[in-house]
């Protein structure tokens, strides 16, 4: 902890971040232990669900809890106290459980086989069903388990957040933000499903639809609401919340656009997801919309023959990737990520009423979440 009134150094900020991560992990472990004890009263098999969830959470970068924490620090003009860090960490742990639930269900919806470099939960459960020689469909069992465990994680997130209490008006404001987070991410998930099915008719065009999905599926639970939860919990006024919101929308959008690029030009070992996964899953991304707009009839025919085809060969996927690059779509999306990252920096630099530790912490997180310079070219 730095002396009172002294500016925090880079080392101080990293230490604060480390303490936050350590506390989130400890809170999560304690909460899961309590849930395991409860489920053990039902049966050994239900208790094992907690072990499955713990394994699933392992390896996460805790990006969302960190946005929550540094949003709280931004609302303060000083380093958070231990009690403040505890409150922010508990909300961060709750947000991470929402994240887990969303990913479990999203992988089922998208038929994604891999998550964080490991088999997706529904795939792993299907394998366990098969190895145990249980009756019925292994695939159906895996899907059912992912739905049930996702619902449990969402329920436990609600209970964890409900236990965070500070000054009553701040508690109530943070709780409203948490409620909005869950409503918005589920609404965004629906828009994603609808867009994949070609039914998002109120959107102007394919790119507008993809951007709307980002705005309501990714932005709220990745950056916007976590930052606002932390800031509201630490007493931010409406002016500060509005400035943080403008910043968060730019960062969250850039984050997802960058993630779309990773499916084409990323490193599978770094991403933990198979390269080409978005093509096989038929994800209607901004990158795909720009490729379709920039290419000719032959290019569009190629995309139509590959996008959403689970039987697409590696060679076909590579052809689609090459088209995304040669059409200029990859370069265009990368440029937009840079532009949004620059806009976010300008918003944060010009924001008033924000503490310097929080400003520095948010800037560091944004740089990490929007980096495209390290991607292959």
From TrEMBL:
The keyword Zinc does not apply. Keywords: Magnesium, Metal-binding, Transferase. Its EC number is 2.5.1.-. The keyword Magnesium applies. InterPro entries: Isoprenoid_synthase_dom_sf (IPR008949), Polyprenyl_synt (IPR000092), Polyprenyl_synt_CS (IPR033749). Gene3D superfamilies: Farnesyl Diphosphate Synthase. GO terms for molecular function: transferase activity. Pfam families: polyprenyl_synt. It is an enzyme of class 2 (transferase). Its cofactor is Mg(2+). CDD domains: Trans_IPPS_HT. Belongs to the FPP/GGPP synthase family. This is Polyprenyl synthetase family protein. It comes from Brachybacterium tyrofermentans. The lineage of its organism: Bacteria, Bacillati, Actinomycetota, Actinomycetes, Micrococcales.
């Amino acid at each position: 902890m730095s002396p009172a009134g002294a500016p925090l150094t880079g080392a101080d900020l990293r230490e604060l971040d480390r303490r936050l991560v350590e506390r989130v992990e400890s809170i999560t472990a304690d909460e899961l232990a309590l849930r395991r004890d409860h489920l053990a009263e039902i049966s050994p098999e239900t208790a094992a669900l907690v072990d499955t969830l713990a394994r699933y959470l392992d390896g996460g970068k805790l990006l969302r809890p960190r946005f929550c924490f540094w949003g709280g620090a931004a609302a303060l003009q000083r380093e958070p106290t231990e009690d403040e860090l505890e409150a922010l960490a508990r909300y961060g742990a709750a947000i991470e459980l929402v994240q887990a639930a969303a990913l479990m269900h999203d992988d089922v919806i998208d038929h994604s086989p891999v998550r964080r470099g490991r088999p997706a939960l529904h795939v792993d459960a299907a394998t366990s069903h098969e190895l145990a020689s249980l009756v019925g469909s292994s695939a159906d069992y895996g899907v059912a388990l992912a739905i049930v465990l996702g619902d449990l994680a969402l329920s436990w997130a609600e209970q964890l957040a409900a236990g965070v209490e500070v000054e009553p008006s701040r508690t109530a404001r943070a709780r409203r933000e948490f409620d909005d987070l869950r409503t918005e991410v589920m609404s965004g998930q629906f828009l994603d499903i609808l867009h994949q099915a070609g039914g998002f008719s109120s959107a102007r065009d394919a790119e507008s639809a993809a951007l709307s999905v980002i705005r309501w599926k990714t932005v709220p639970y990745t950056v916007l609401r976590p930052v606002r939860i932390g800031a509201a919990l630490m007493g931010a006024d409406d002016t500060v919340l509005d400035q943080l919101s403008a910043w968060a929308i730019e960062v969250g959008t850039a984050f997802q656009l960058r993630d779309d690029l990773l499916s084409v030009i990323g490193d599978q070992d770094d991403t933990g997801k198979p390269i080409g996964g978005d093509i096989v899953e038929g994800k209607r991304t901004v990158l795909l919309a720009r490729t379709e707009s920039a290419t000719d009839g032959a290019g569009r025919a190629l995309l139509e023959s590959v996008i959403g085809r689970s039987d697409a060969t590696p060679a076909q996927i590579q052809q689609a990737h090459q088209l995304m690059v040669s059409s200029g779509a990859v370069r265009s999306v990368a440029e937009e990520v840079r532009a949004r990252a620059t806009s976010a920096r300008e918003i944060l630099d010009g924001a008033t009423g924000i503490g310097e530790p929080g400003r520095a912490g948010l800037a560091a997180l944004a740089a990490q979440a929007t980096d495209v310079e390290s991607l292959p070219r």
